[in-house]
Fold this sequence. Notes:
Elements: E1 2-10, H1 14-25, E2 30-33, E3 51-52, H2 54-59, E4 67-77, E5 82-92, H3 94-107, E6 111-113, E7 118-124, E8 127-133, E9 137-146, H4 153-158, E10 168-177, E11 192-196, E12 205-213, E13 216-224, H5 227-232, H6 239-249, E14 257-269, E15 277-278, E16 281-283, H7 298-317, H8 326-329, H9 331-340, H10 344-356, H11 359-371, H12 376-381, H13 385-391, H14 397-411
Parallel strand pairs: 1-2, 1-9, 2-6, 4-11, 9-16
Antiparallel strand pairs: 3-5, 4-5, 7-8, 8-9, 10-13, 10-14, 11-12, 12-13, 15-16
Helix pairs in contact: 1-3, 1-7, 7-9
Domain FAD-binding: 5-304
EC number: 1.3.1.-
GO molecular function, one term: FAD binding
Amino acid sequence: MSERFDVVIAGAGPAGAQCARDLAQRGYEVVLLEMESEDGFPRQSNKSTAGTFPSMMAAFGVPDDVVMNYTDDVVLESPNHHYVQNQPGAVLEFAEFKQWLVADARKKGAEVWFDARVARPIMDDGKPVGVRYNGDEEVYADIIVDATGPAAPLAKELGVSDLERKKQAIGVEYEMEGIEIDHPEFADLTDSMMLRLDHDLAPGGYSWIFHTGDDQAKVGLCYIQNDSHRQHGKEGMSIDDYLQYWLDTDPRFENAERLEGKVHRGSAHIQTPGDLSTDNFMAIGDTVPTIDPLWGEGIHKGMQSGRAAATTADRCLTPEEPDTSASAMAVYNKLWHSEVAPRMRERLLMTELLYLAPNSRYDKLMADLNETEEETLAKVNAGNLGAMRNLLRLSDVPLLAKFARERFSDSR
């Protein structure tokens, strides 16, 4: 089977589906290839806490139908303290969200082919001109987009983006009921998204409770394979063991039970990306390493990268004589750095420093945040160096030295 489109997109996650939505709405012939079967798409093991903020909901027209709960606050916890910031948000039902994206892409005119496992690009004169999938089946297009996540078979073969995975973050999440959302020993988590920094529970990472209504919540943790994980990790414990340890020791879960079939897993890689495009090609979404600290809104970033890719494709294909050369496709690189992930190096710095800090520093951080202006945390998450400096203390010198050693070790 061989067909031709303006754009072929591999991967029907938030980035790929959003790219297809935008391109189809502009009248382009676009096909979305998804390895999963349509029946039951997406698998329940699919990742993500799916917490987001109003800016994402409004920008992409996300309907209320896919929202599990609207939240009022973001809560940060350390081993002994907490900080509460008013920040409206939404916890999405991720499977229904992905289903809506695909359905809307189809409604706008995109073709969606399920059971289509992408294998490698089809090359002509050293340039990708199509995609081979399901063994020997082929589809051709003027522009190819890889939105397949960390697997990234097209980006890897083309050498696009630095896919040498240096620091992998892995996570697991359960949906649960019977949780004491307003426990007297902790902050009230009613209609809140909570992130906890505690190496005893998540060495080199963080854990979370996202309230989804009544006594239910999404509960999970992730960690980065960094120096803190090596220092604080418990020998022989898997990611599931850490989550179970938290469930067994936190009184909020004393009467909690897991909802059957509601388990989500995922991974990401914490590093700055290299190139993002080449002739006729772009790598988007999770195919690009994540660089966001704390609640980096991975879904929002994926959607933004899909929109940036659609904008780039439109600019390249609109002229009477389309130009999909590497230099023309590099518009996507510029949009990624300016619109999707601005100040990426500063934000990566914050991510790495945050997870290398000891538990005692997390307690001090909560105290510092409670004494600073409310916008400080948002500024830090956006990569504002001045806001970061305001949270540093003289006692952080050993932490900065630790960070420098790890950076030096990575560069060798």
